[in-house]
Prior knowledge:
The protein is built from three helices and 17 strands. The strands form two sheets. Strands 1, 3, 4, 6, 11, 12, 13, 14, 15 and 17 form a ten-stranded mixed beta sheet that branches. The chain has a seven-stranded antiparallel beta sheet with strand order 2-5-16-7-8-9-10. 6% of the residues lie in helices and 40% in strands.
Amino acid sequence: MFKQLSLAALVVLGVVGYRVVAADKPAEAPPAAPAATPAAAPAPELPAPDADGFISLFNGKDLTNWEGLTDFWSVKDGVISGEESKEHAAPQTFLCLSQSLAHPEKFANFELHYQYKFTTPKGNSGVQFRSQMKIPKNYRIGGYQADCDASRGYDGSIYDEAGVAGGRGTMSGRGQKVVWNADNKRENTPLPEDNKQLQAEVKTNDWNDVVLVANGDHITYTINGLLMTDLTDDSPKAVKDGIIGLQLHAGFVMEIQFKDLKIKFLDAK
């Protein structure tokens, strides 16, 4: 399930123009130790919260507040676009929220709202949270992912990208309430609507409205007003905070779009 570097950062990393194509999820290598976040100018401060406590993460004009490979990420028609082709292949890469790169410890407990749309018949993406930097030159991060894809196979599931949360693959599937206990054992309970019923509510080539809540050990992923999956993670492999990012998955001819991103920080349970 499967950026805008400053000139100074590119010189420091010494990797101008270098790209590595990552494998699809089943072929991912075992997780390595977290890598250092790319050196960059100080992250811009986020806007003040609105009356309901939400902070806008995207201004609809440019990639202020975001960092990534600008060969693949841009703003067009007021939305964030991640795009790749056979002729312009992307590595496994993410557009990362600058403040979460600079202060990952602050992005632990939150309610995140956004909309996403695939404009192509194929593609794979997702929103990373509680994630860690793996390959700085590619803005390759790993951790919890609110998964989605153009064929609606994974939308509504939580995936362990790059094995950062213990190599647990799909940690909580669509239509499931999942508890990972203190012994790292998984307990599954079905939600009222099953996988197929929930899949039918995910739109193709149209905007899907997401509410993602991570608070303490409890994570919920809602699409178009329907609870898709409910995860309680008491595993010793759980990750408590980290980077927020938008995925452009390697190996596709695809475009993924995001808009209306906003976050409200929560007090842990």
